Amino acid sequence: METHQLFKKNVTYNGLYAMLLVNRLQMLYFFLIMPNILINPYMIWVLIAVGILSQLNLLLLSKWLSSRLSSNGYNGFVQLFGKKLVRFLSFIGLFFILLKLSVITLGFSEIVQTFMLPSTDTNFLVFFILLFCFYVAAKGIEHTIRFVLISFFSTFWMITFFIFFFFPPIAQLSDLYPLIPMEWKVENWKAFFLILSSYSGPEFLVFLGPWLKTNNKTFRFLSFGNALTVVEYVFLFMASLLYFGSNYLSKSQYPIINMARYFQNPVFERIDMIMLSFELFNLVFAVSLFILLFYGASKIALGKMNKPSSGKGLLFSVFIIFIGMVLLNELFWKPWEKQNFLLNLQIIAGSISYFLVPLVIVLVMKKKQGVK
Description:
Blueprint: H1 15-26, H2 30-38, H3 43-65, H4 68-71, H5 74-81, H6 83-115, H7 122-137, H8 141-155, H9 187-198, H10 218-244, H11 246-249, H12 255-260, H13 271-301, H14 311-333, H15 336-367
Helix pairs in contact: 1-8, 1-10, 2-9, 2-10, 3-9, 3-10, 3-15, 5-6, 6-7, 6-13, 6-14, 6-15, 7-13, 7-14, 8-13, 9-15, 13-14, 14-15
């Protein structure tokens, strides 16, 4: 295990990887529970509108990725903010990374327990997921970025199965009404912020500048990834409406998974279990990347950047993440009445990080005249 190679730059990845990174980091746990919270058909327009707003955010992100400072990695951030402020921001970033890691991992573990392994404690599932992710992360940032190809081709095909819900006798056009809200309810605000948070994830690309090959087409590829996410979100939400109807959609905790249980095949009896197994590839990719970012941020926060990366350091980071997840699982996730607190916290944190990180960086760049 060549742990000294964890953050070494040997190659750079083209726009295709940037596109897939954007798309797969957006298609994590929230898309599985999104229809249960959106409910109303007119939220289709909100999905599209926030997707367009996300494009503007990606424009800011592309400006940073195309800058000289971005390609310098840690040193670029030091030139932009100063060493002390970078350490402080890294310390804050640890909270955001751990929170996102915990929600997507605990959420997926609960789904696996519910539909596949009902007698297995979720803490054991979290342990094995982190074990797989440690193996991938230990290969280094370059191999982890490359893993997005496996993640994409292992999961994107699943959406084709849901085409059947758009045809009779399941589909009824009346299930897509009303498309214009008669009133804006209080619970719609939670749905709105959930959508904002669901588009988050690409902001972590600000730390991958040294490994991404940028040019005048960078924004185009980032936009393609985001547009693909919009199509997937709208497609799956419409399929959920046509299957459940808006009156019953809120009754299903995991609408997408319950719809997958409807699929029948003469060879495979439980297609939903196969889909969940493939979805694990995307989770492993995202968590592996976040583990590396957590380890890197912890080194910066503790002022250890002069010391080389080590396997022990990465393993200790995974251990800290595991302990944090177990505590959150026992205190907030398993008690159903407290689970919403953790979800709402991630909804707020995801919305803030996605729209503030690129904006603040670009504003500071303009102030220091660092934009190309």
